[in-house]
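User: Ectoine/hydroxyectoine ABC transporter ATP-binding protein EhuA, Isoptericola peretonis:
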Amino acid sequence: MTNTSNGTPAIEFRDVVKRFGDNVVLDKLNFSVAQGDRVTLIGPSGSGKTTILRLLMTLEEANGGLILIDGDPYTHEYKGDKWVEIPEKRRRVVRNRVGMVFQQFNLFPNMTVLENIIEAPVHVLGLSKKDATDRAEQLLEQVGMPDKRDARCTQLSGGQQQRVAIARALAMDPEILLLDEVTSALDPEIVADVLGVLRDIARTTDITMLLVTHEMQFAREVSNRVLMFDHGQIVEEADPETMFTNPKHERTQEFLKAVLGG
Ligand SMILES: Nc1ncnc2c1ncn2[C@@H]1O[C@H](COP(=O)(O)OP(=O)(O)OP(=O)(O)O)[C@@H](O)[C@H]1O
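Assistant: Predicted structure for Ectoine/hydroxyectoine ABC transporter ATP-binding protein EhuA:
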């Protein structure tokens, strides 16, 4: 899907509140991601990075504020001064513009690679099986696994499963791709393969990307903007080069020292 660069952010959080019981994870969070931007979220464990991605996938519900995709309210909207839920049918239309790749791949283990990739395009988007299969084959080529079409996911290595998960997310033709620690569960020697695939996607498409990663090299190569989170708030934002070599905020300096060592 082609992003239309009309100045409307691809993603916008307005005063978003998220609580788990008494734990206020996001307290009126505001930020936006421009169309085609590649933004990395960094910050200490528990600062709310994954929660942001899960809110965008509607895997969690916000307790207040607005989340907008291309200017459309996503899960709730204000009617007068009332904060009301958006009906499921309207929500789904917006939801289909967003794809996510998870740390633990989340593939259907009993399906083949091809079945995993075409499942949502056929059942959610209503594509014909033939069209979905043609597209899946192109994507398998793109992620470097053209020969694994009929393999069961349980027969694949972690790196291969993650590449299938990336192909599956792209098969929905998302405008926005969310990547949550996609290399954390992988052995170090195969991390480079997965990063290579994502670097290629970043280079050859205009998909808006929002990623959470502890791989600073990856953040540097793929993203053009880094947001440092602490306690559910953005404490600093900069381009990767500036953020990683010359962080201004004390919390960023401490965090990067802990992550990068030295
Ligand atoms: N389903 C849940 N139920 C209760 N608390 C939750 C739930 N999900 C997240 N939390 C809490 O919300 C806070 C933010 O968690 P989140 O996973 O977003 O942080 P994070 O910045 O992604 O951390 P990490 O880098 O460790 O993945 C944490 O205090 C966490 O314990």
